[in-house]
Each structure stands twice: as structure tokens, then as C-alpha cells.
Specification:
The chain is elongated. Helix 5 links the parallel strand 4 and strand 5. The protein has seven helices and seven strands, in the order βααββααβαβαββα. Helices cover about 40% and strands about 20% of the residues. It has about 170 residues and is of the alpha/beta class.
Length: about 170
């Protein structure tokens, strides 16, 4: 976190959110100990609330309130909460593991747009996905792994589903 690495985990429930805590708290999980969210060991609840209200608007998180428990949000809004938290601070690298798995089309498109905006702003994005269409539409280069090793690195612009499929089967 301190080095500017953001992480959008594969399992948002296990590794991305504190489900029994408010959306506002989840939005500062990476930075709760830093100003303006903390003064020494004391949390600045006003700053945390203001941050939540801002990010809820900017990232279109559909929630009744910043006090709503993260576990009661839809999957898409849970994922947008994670993306908001990770992309609302200065980052140099985003590691996104299956960032759109199980989401509705609107949430998928929103998250794709945010990853592209980050890339266009000079942030390195490592996208790990089993969805070929997602990789082919978002990636500049695709590294194909076979038996735990990178078999080949291909330019996404010229990649085909068939060619990637062969590489995934170990055929180079």
C-alpha cells in the first residue's frame, strides 16, 4: 500500500471487504491510519464520512447510506466499493484478480472503464482473468500460462480466441 500498489482481490468477501462494517469504513481500509482519516490513534469520523459520500457519488455505489453494512450491498456495489477504495489513492500498480467475476453488465462496464482510466493515467495494471473477452478488450499484452509457467506473451491487438486457446493447452 505504501509503495502505491492497489489490489482488487478475486474473492471480495474473503479478502476485499469487512462485510460486517459500514461502507464508509470499508472505503478507508487502506488508509484509515493516515491523515485526514486519523489524528494519531483517534479516527476522524467526519473525514471518513465525507470521503464515503464523495466516493459513493464518484463510483456510483448504490447504497442507502454510508452507514450501510458492506455485506448487505449487491455484488456489483461491493466490488465498486473495493475499486473506489483502491483507486481513490495515489497508485502506481493495480493488481486486479478476476475483478468482474459474477457481476452484472453495468458493473462490469463501470469497472472496465475505471481500469482503462487508470492505465491511461500511467498506472500499471496487471489483470488476471479467465475471461478471454475481458483480456482481449482490456489488455495491451497477454501472458498465457501453462503448467504454472508463462508459455508466451502476445500482443492483445492481434490475439485470437483460437490462438490463446492453443497456448492455454500448451501448444506454441
Amino acid at each position: 500500500i505504501e509503495a502505491g500498489v492497489a489490489h482488487i482481490p478475486e474473492d471480495r468477501h474473503k479478502h476485499g471487504l469487512a462485510l460486517t462494517h459500514a461502507v464508509a469504513d470499508n472505503l478507508v481500509l487502506s488508509t484509515y491510519y493516515q491523515p485526514p482519516f486519523a489524528r494519531g490513534i483517534e479516527l476522524n469520523e467526519t473525514a471518513i464520512q465525507r470521503n464515503a459520500q464523495t466516493l459513493i457519488g464518484q463510483f456510483d455505489i448504490r447504497t442507502p447510506s454510508w452507514l450501510t453494512l458492506a455485506g448487505s450491498l449487491s455484488g456489483g456495489n461491493q466490488q465498486k466499493t473495493i475499486v473506489a477504495r483502491e483507486l481513490s489513492r495515489p497508485v502506481r500498480l493495480i493488481i486486479a484478480a478476476q475483478p468482474t467475476r459474477g457481476l452484472d453488465v453495468g458493473s462490469i462496464e463501470f469497472i472496465h472503464r475505471r481500469l482503462i482510466q487508470a492505465r491511461d493515467a500511467g498506472v500499471a495494471v496487471l489483470l488476471i482473468s479467465a475471461e478471454l473477452d475481458e483480456l482481449m478488450s482490456l489488455a495491451d499484452r497477454i501472458a498465457v500460462m501453462y503448467k504454472g509457467k508463462i508459455l508466451d506473451l502476445v500482443e492483445a491487438q492481434g490475439a485470437t480466441r483460437e490462438g490463446l486457446g492453443l497456448l492455454m493447452a500448451g501448444v506454441k
